[in-house]
Write a structure and sequence with these properties.
The complex is a heterodimer. Chain A is α/β, with parallel strands linked by helices. Helix content of chain A is 44%, strand content 12%. Chain A is built from twelve helices and eight strands. Chain B has one domain: ABC transporter involved in vitamin B12 uptake, BtuC, CATH 1.10.3470. The chains are: A alpha/beta, B mainly alpha.
Chain lengths: 318, 301
């Protein structure tokens, strides 16, 4: 049967190669084994992870999935991320659609019996939520530090570790001190200059808490593109209000904000680039507290305030 | 059950089965596409599904995966049929027909999104195109014996089960109509005189191809689907002498690329690079490498 053997010949080597590969690498990848006493906790963003790490202390293994420069709206998990999620006993995430691509995975994990907690829906009632379009809640709640400090209670009551309550109370007072600092920093900005114009709509809660009017080129998610009309309207606003500065965001493209500067320039109003804000990830600031402090001080300095006159409180809230 | 086995069952079993089933099915059906110079239909379907998604959303009012899948399948079948019809009546090369159909359908989809209530819903091609193998993880049973129970296996991800059903059905259907199909592909006129309805057969093939492509999109992502439709078939064409040999080889090459690529990405890469790499991308690279190697070492006899 020469015809049959020539048909079957490719089978031999085509099947031998993957089999030997499987045998060779058997047991290679997974080195983590054995007894695990400490609960494994997975967090999505740094804004969530910093709080959980602080409250868990030495009592749990905390993994933060999103790097400091990752845009959570566009994050897609890798196999290692899925491995961390499936091995965890508790998963904390931000919620309200921030981790859009991860949500089906989190729902699946919750069905499998893992505790999955969305922080944002647990800290604010309907009247405290901001929403641009009907039915879509703005997920950037961490921009209001006083509101975000309520996460401490939620995390402490979910985490089954010793001393969580005490560490949560200490963290809450640190965050409330940070909140007061931001309030004082923003208060140095002259009243008429309190207009914050950014790349995407991440600062609604910041603006409401600290008394700043906010506008953005893109909506609450960076997934959809900005329209020409949105840019045109913002240029009108910048010129009419004589806004001193507009701001970049570290996780969003600079292109749209540059368009604002050029648009205002062509109408005879020079608007400065106020600096780079960290909206959805801490970027170079590395931590939640440092990111909030950086944002407040950058905004105040660019809009004519005097951030240096407000001293940073002593303590470990870095 | 050992930790390593549990990890394999949780993270790898469902994606490995999915990529194997999909690779086998796509390479088998892709063999016919390459032969008829319609290989880019994979890309065409990727763009043509948009109107189907919008219509499915408007009819059902949800973005549930099953509704989106049905809408995409409907659009894919329409696109596939339109490409065949326009090619025949317009006397056009299949590539031209593909170019006409998918741009028109995509534009129709954009128009529907803009004019209907779907505008404020986050409805885009990502719903069905951006499948990711890594996300097909599974909660395995407590003991290894339970793996043999059908009720336990039925809890595998829907994507894997769907691709498994296709991988079982497609070779069986092709075997059933093999002789007439051979005639319909190579000599439609002869097939018609023998009374074997070549048009009906090819329409059936179109529907199978559309179904396999759409089902694979949501598990594998669109680029890998196109790679698996073309590379194994192109490699098999280099050394096959009969249609049966060609189709079989294509299927085997597809299975090889699927399994090897997945193992390289999830087993070898962690050992060598320290972290796993994207499985879909690695499978596509494997398929391309296989074609390159085959082209370099093929015997010219």
């Amino acid at each position: 049967m020469p015809r049959l053997t020539s048909t079957l010949r490719p089978f031999a080597w085509a099947l031998a190669a993957p089999l030997s590969l499987l045998l060779w690498s058997c047991g290679a990848g997974e080195v983590e084994a054995g007894e695990h006493v400490r609960p494994r906790v997975v967090c999505t963003t740094a804004m969530v992870g910093d709080l959980v790490r602080e409250i868990a202390g030495e009592e749990a293994d905390v993994t933060v999935l999103f790097g400091a420069d990752v845009d959570p709206h566009l994050f897609r998990p890798t196999r290692d991320d899925v491995a961390a999620i499936t091995a965890a006993s508790v998963v904390f995430h931000s919620g309200y659609g921030l981790e859009a691509y991860l949500e089906p995975t989190l729902a699946k994990i919750a069905d499998g019996g893992t505790t999955v907690v969305a922080l944002a829906p647990n800290i604010a009632d309907e009247t405290e939520l901001s929403s641009e379009t009907e039915g879509v809640v703005d997920p950037h709640l961490w921009m209001d530090v006083k509101l975000w400090a309520r996460c401490c209670d939620v995390i402490a009551s979910t985490l089954p570790v010793n001393g969580a309550r005490e560490r949560a109370d200490a963290l809450r007072s640190e965050l409330l001190a940070l909140d007061a600092e931001v309030e004082a920093v923003v208060a140095t900005i002259p009243q008429r200059s309190r207009v914050l114009i950014t790349a995407h709509d991440a600062f609604a809660y910041f603006g409401r808490r600290y008394g700043v009017e906010v506008h953005a080129v893109q909506g609450v998610s960076t997934a959809s593109e900005a329209g020409l009309r949105a840019i045109e309207e913002l240029v009108d606003l910048i010129v009419a209000r004589e806004a001193p500065a507009v701001f970049f965001e570290s996780t969003v493209s600079e292109r749209n904000v540059r368009a604002l500067v050029e648009g205002a320039g062509s109408r005879g109003h020079t608007v400065a680039i106020g600096g780079v804000l960290h909206s959805d990830a801490p970027g170079e600031a590395r931590t939640y507290a440092a990111m909030i402090r950086h944002n407040a001080r950058t905004i105040a300095d660019a809009l004519g305030g005097d951030a240096a006159s407000v001293t940073e409180p002593e303590g470990p809230a870095q | 059950m050992s930790e390593a086995l549990r990890t394999f069952l949780t993270l790898d079993l469902a994606p490995l089965l999915a990529v194997t089933f999909a690779a086998g099915t796509l390479a088998l059906l892709g063999a016919f596409l390459v032969l008829e110079r319609r290989a880019m239909i994979g890309d065409a379907v990727a763009h043509s599904v948009l109107p189907g998604l919008v219509i499915a959303f408007l009819v059902t009012g949800t973005r549930a995966p099953s509704a989106m899948l049905l809408g995409a399948l409907g659009a894919a079948v329409v696109a596939s049929g339109a490409i065949g019809t326009i090619g025949r009546f317009g006397r056009l090369d299949p590539t031209v027909a593909i170019g006409i159909v998918f741009t028109t359908l995509f534009a129709l989809g954009v128009l529907l999104v803009e004019t209907s209530g779907a505008r404020n819903v986050d409805l885009d091609l990502d719903c069905v195109l951006s499948g990711q193998l890594e996300l097909l993880f599974w909660t395995p049973p407590a003991t290894a014996v339970d793996l043999l129970r059908p009720a336990v296996l039925a809890t595998l991800p829907r994507e894997t089960l769907l691709l498994g059903a296709l991988f079982a059905a497609v070779p069986a259907l092709l075997a059933l109509v093999w002789r007439p199909l051979e005639a319909a592909v190579f000599d439609p006129t002869y097939a018609r005189t023998r009374g074997t309805a070549p048009r009906l057969l090819r329409a059936g093939l179109f529907i199978l191809q559309a179904a396999a492509i759409v089902a694979s999109f949501e598990a594998l992502g669109s680029i890998l689907v196109i790679a698996l439709l073309t590379c194994p078939a192109a490699a098999a064409r280099l050394d096959a002498r009969t249609l049966l040999g060609y189709v079989t080889r294509s299927c085997v090459y597809g299975l090889f690329a699927g399994v090897t690529g997945y193992l390289l990405a999830t087993r070898t890469a962690p050992a060598v690079l320290g972290s796993s790499i994207d499985a879909s991308g690695t499978v596509a690279v494997c398929a391309g490498t296989l074609l390159a190697v085959r082209a370099l070492v093929v015997r010219r006899s």
